[in-house]
Amino acid sequence: MDVALTHWINGAAGISAFLDKTMIGVSQIGVPLMVLAVALQWWAKVDRYHVRHAVVSAGLAFLLGLAVNQFILLFVHRIRPYDAGVTHLLIAPSADWSFPSDHATASIAIVAAFAMQGLPRRTIALFIMAFLICGSRIFIGTHYLTDVVGGAITGILGAIVVRLAYRENSRLDKLVTKIL
Q: Where are the alpha helices (DSSP H) in 16-144?
């Protein structure tokens, strides 16, 4: 089922040059744009302290999720779908293993961190960006659907750990906010 869904999503690649270029662009600059959007929240005027806590939480979840991915890559060596003949690749091939998707981890970690801080409008906007990023990775042929799902899970787990360890109004929170 994973192969079939991955092949189906990637099947639209190559039909429209505009769509191909758009999805390549989303894949390449989506995560940096999300990071920029989060960083700009630092200067939010409404509920400034709470939003700043969410920004730091998102950054920590992002980093923790990617660290977990590096650990997983030590044990899981899944070849890329284009190497398995499942997808048509629209970008240069990657040198690392396919599972889990770092793009999915990074983008979903940010979304989950904001969701756990109870910031619904920001969460929805970030989720739309993350959904496009995750979909683009399959569309351009560089990941299986389950690579993206696995990356999303590590991103969510990173956000949960950060939520449990980095509480708002704690000494650590006040210290971090003072430093930044």
A: 17-40, 48-73, 102-116, 120-139
